[in-house]
Design a protein that fits this description.
Helices cover 27% and strands 28% of the residues. Bound molecules: adenosine-5'-triphosphate and magnesium ion.
């Protein structure tokens, strides 16, 4: 491809809305351009990167036994009514009406549609398993679309779905997908981790996320040298250090003490000469069904994802100051479980293991000391709602865990019968009994993975594409385009590289060298070949890698061999 025949337009300025490197660089390098919030054009260079990634994905999906199909982007509401998601999905679901006022939505994911395909055809266990995937445009009306392709509203996803007669068969497919995902990210040259992920409140299922490590990642990951790794939303901890002993004689029964204007646990603790870990922190939440009082040890924080799962609710928010007053009888900052009758109380185990403690008195400017969990209040639910943080002991080996940031590029999930049951996607087992199919689903963000590759591979001049994802592997740069012999040499090299099947872009523009080099650094082609007057005078061209910039002079008649040799060397560094 010749630069002057394609469509590459780089920008000098960062886009005003770009908060992260990948967004900034992908727009500036002319890979993508914005159409509306979270909606992008994939320009020729950007599309080449996506196509290369998709090719790797397709190879690994086929290898894992999945067959490609393509489902529609616009899907009828009836299917979503059947699964119950038409009402469960909030404003993220883009709903449309056709000319007959029938409801449709633009698919944010395709469990319903694929389940409908399978239920029409599968009758017997002999037709299982089924494993299907597609690479397709999704739409999710995200609250905060941002970061370019990382959190778009319209984005490309690879989504696969598998259907099985029994859990053991799902297990086989799940492991094959897990391997395929590892291979995809390894082949792309990305450094990633696989972590345990939240399974929501379906329960019992297994789920893993694949995270590309990057400081700009939206997810927190806790991991340990023993190999444990989990999304912070889900991470457990080993036994936490016990609260320090009560520093003086604690009252035998709960005793109110004045704590004027001391609302935070830290402030009250300092005021009463206690430690935060001596306290019960009581937070009042409002769910889709009820108010709940949630108790956590004073030195810890609540993990709202765990809490949602424990409560089995879909929406959860902190109650307003007025509602807290109505529910507890006391102002915000003074809530406590003693004498709370009208709300369900959920306690973290860290609270129940406190022998004696202090907490809000549900009255202005007052706390209770000498409270004994189990005796003075009895929670309806005891569940782990503790937010794990760096330094907490690993649940497997007890060593302190570390926290990293990651970009969730893939998510695999044992769904069980969540969709097959309500949608009646069933088969007859070997005894002739009708059973719902057992399902798995496997998502991978195509655009997000490309963006994550940029987050992980760049410097202050631009992108440094890993070879497998580069829009072109090699760029051939013509300097001194006013000199016929230089042009002729460059044309000749271009022709022979193409003949050798090299993925090359010929920068044949009449631009100054400085402009060209800035663009090439910005876009980040892995291999650069420079043809100029100076080198040619001694019969050479200059070959370098974007990664280290180290240049070598190559004689004209050895160019193709040098380039193909270098590419082979680079390819050998990654699995193929
Ligand atoms: P997130 O937690 O980041 O919102 P999710 O859990 O909703 O993602 P899934 O439903 O598991 O995402 O979707 C599968 C994959 O699709 C994700 O792992 C991610 O790579 C990609 N993806 C999801 N939402 C977006 C988005 N808004 N923009 C780009 N890619 C996305
Ligand atoms: Mg996810």
């Amino acid at each position: 491809m010749r630069w002057t025949r394609t469509f590459i337009h780089t920008l000098r300025q960062d886009p005003a809305d770009a908060e992260v490197v990948s967004h900034r660089l992908m727009v500036r390098a002319g890979l993508i351009s914005k159409v509306a919030a979270g909606i992008y054009n994939y320009l020729p260079l950007g599309l080449r990167t996506l196509a290369k990634l998709e090719r790797i994905i397709r190879e690994e999906m086929e290898h894992a036994g999945s067959s490609e199909l393509l489902m529609p982007a616009v899907t009828p509401a009836e299917l979503w009514h059947e699964s119950g998601r038409w009402s469960q999905y909030g404003p993220e679901l883009l709903r449309l009406k056709d000319r007959h006022q029938r409801d449709f939505c633009f698919g944010p994911t395709h469990e319903e549609v694929v389940t409908d395909i399978v239920r029409r055809e599968v009758r017997s266990y002999r037709q299982l398993p089924v494993n299907l995937y597609q690479i397709q445009t999704k739409f999710r009306d995200e609250v905060r679309p941002r970061f370019g392709l990382m959190r778009g509203r319209e984005f490309v996803m690879k989504d696969a779905y598998s259907f099985h007669a029994d859990p053991a068969d799902l297990e086989v497919a799940y492991r094959a997908m897990e391997t395929a995902y590892c291979r995809i990210f390894e082949r792309c040259g990305l450094s990633y981790v696989k972590v345990e992920a939240d399974t929501g409140n379906i329960g019992g299922s297994e789920s893993h996320e694949f995270m590309v490590l990057a400081d700009t990642g939206e997810d927190a990951i806790l991991s340990c040298s023993c190999g444990y790794g989990a999304n912070a939303e889900k991470a457990e901890t080993g036994a936490l250090p016990e609260a320090p002993a009560w520093p003086r004689q604690a009252p035998e029964s709960p005793e109110a003490v004045a704590t004027p204007e001391q609302t935070s646990v830290e402030d009250v603790a300092a005021f009463l000469e206690l430690e935060p870990a001596h306290f019960i922190k009581t937070m009042i939440f409002e769910t889709d069904q009820e108010f709940v009082a949630v108790l956590i040890r004073g030195d810890r924080e609540i993990n709202e994802v765990k809490l949602k799962n424990a409560l089995g609710c879909t929406h959860l928010q902190l109650a307003s100051a007025e509602k807290i007053e109505t529910v507890t009888g006391g102002p915000q900052g003074f809530s406590g479980p003693v004498g709370l009758h009208d709300v369900r109380v959920v306690a973290d185990p860290t609270v129940m293991s406190l022998a004696v403690t202090a907490t809000g008195a549900n009255a202005a400017d007052a706390h209770l000391v000498g409270v004994r969990p189990g005796r003075d209040f009895d929670p309806a639910v005891v569940a782990d709602v503790n937010l794990a943080v760096a330094g907490d002991p690993c649940p497997r080996c007890g060593q302190p865990m570390i926290e990293k940031r990651g970009i969730e590029v893939g998510h695999i999930f044992k769904l069980g019968t969540k969709y097959s049951e309500p949608m009646r996607c069933t088969f007859l087992d070997s005894e002739g009994n009708e059973q719902p199919c057992i399902m798995g689903c496997y998502g991978l963000g195509v655009g997000r993975t490309a963006a994550a590759a940029v987050e992980q591979n760049h410097d202050d001049r631009g992108i440094i594409w890993p070879l497998p994802l580069a829009p072109f592997e090699v760029v051939l740069v013509l300097l001194n385009s006013d000199q016929d012999d230089v042009v002729a040499a460059a044309e000749q090299i271009y022709g022979s590289l193409r003949a050798a099947g090299v993925d090359v872009l010929f920068d044949d523009r009449l631009e100054r060298p400085g402009v060209k080099f800035n663009d090439l650094d910005l876009i980040g082609f892995p291999v650069r070949l420079v043809v100029g007057k100076k080198g040619l005078a001694s019969g050479n061209v200059e070959l370098s890698l974007r990664r280290d910039g180290e240049r070598q002079m190559i004689p004209l008649d050895g160019v193709v061999q040098a380039v193909t040799g270098l590419l082979a060397e680079e390819r050998a560094k990654l699995p193929s």
